What does this fold into?
Amino acid sequence: PEYSILLLGGDGIGPEVTAEAAAVLDQLSASPNARATFKFVPRAFGGCSIDEHGVSVTEETLEQGKKCDAILMGAVGGPKWDGKRRGFEGPEGATLRLREVTDVYANIRPTEYFPQGKSPLREELVRGTKYIVLRENCGGAFYGPKVEEPDYASDLWSYKRSEIERIARMAATLALSPAVPVKKVISCDKANVLASSRIWRRIVEETITKEFPDVELVHQLADSATTLMMTKPSMFNGVIVADNTFGDILSDLAAVIPGTLGVLPSGCLADLPAPAWTPGLKPVKGFFEPVHGSAPDIAGQGIANPIGAILSAALMLRYSFGLFEEAKAIEDAVNLTLESGLRTKDMGGSSSTKELGSAIRENLKKL
Ligand code: NAI
Ligand code: MG
It folds into this structure.
């Protein structure tokens, strides 16, 4: 089949890194034994859309988001648009609106130790660390009704059973996948103080023990989890699952592990990941983007690390399209390229974005 991908380069280094990710997908499409091909629908998004259309995302682009099989985004924002517009009016409003209309409730952020990175953690501590942070992305304090007065403000932090069940199922499904080394879910909450955490803990427990007996489940208080993530990182090998607020914090903390933001991918899914590809497989809607931002300090120089964007494309193949082997091949090609000594500046090398991208494609051909 041909899958359609809404391609949103965005601002700053976004277009530079997504171009490399798209080139990797084009190469896969062109391969004689391709099981699927990819068609891109490129659109302006974020700051560049404000410049072009007066809004950070047009209704037509939102429609394309619903229609396309998956979305690949670079990053949005930059000093040019700072201050003037905030929230839904600013560049980041584009991401919030597109997430909302596509109902992608599960934010997947894998992290792992790269020997070539510059991890601030000691090598012997962090070696072998590989886990996924799964953040509930459509509920909790971020979306509850807000009161904002000069001398009083509140955010309603609430969860209902169905929201917790679906994210718990997602966590256990990911824990059973070969993407993590251990069949384990670590659920993080503050059940000692928050009612919304007590229902979280109870329903995660019920859902996983009943439906996924092969998955080990551990509950961890979110505050002490931060200390343990830095002192015993490999203890989290598996899937960390948390609500919107704690997941936001824990996923950024997990970004310390590789030592550069430039290599980390992420994705948001609207449903359980696709099973292994079979003819006629219906894709699962997903929204994929590197973890890093638009890096205005290095934009236009051609030195951005494209690995985060390329690995985001690999996540798309695995979770939206069930193309497990192709996703693994991209990840292997990235590792081979790093092992050969090529690096961008953020990893201590001097390769350009394009050099790294084409080396990854060359290695992919050999796999
Ligand atoms: P950032 O991630 O853009 O940059 C932080 C630092 O990491 C910078 O020194 C940058 O040069 C470096 N860096 C980031 N990605 C890199 C890559 N691929 N290769 C090499 N170096 C890389 O975060 P920052 O500076 O806080 O934000 C810059 C702009 O990006 C802001 O306007 C912010 O709102 C936006 N942003 C957008 C995001 C998105 O669209 N998903 C996420 C985070 C920030
Ligand atoms: Mg964050």
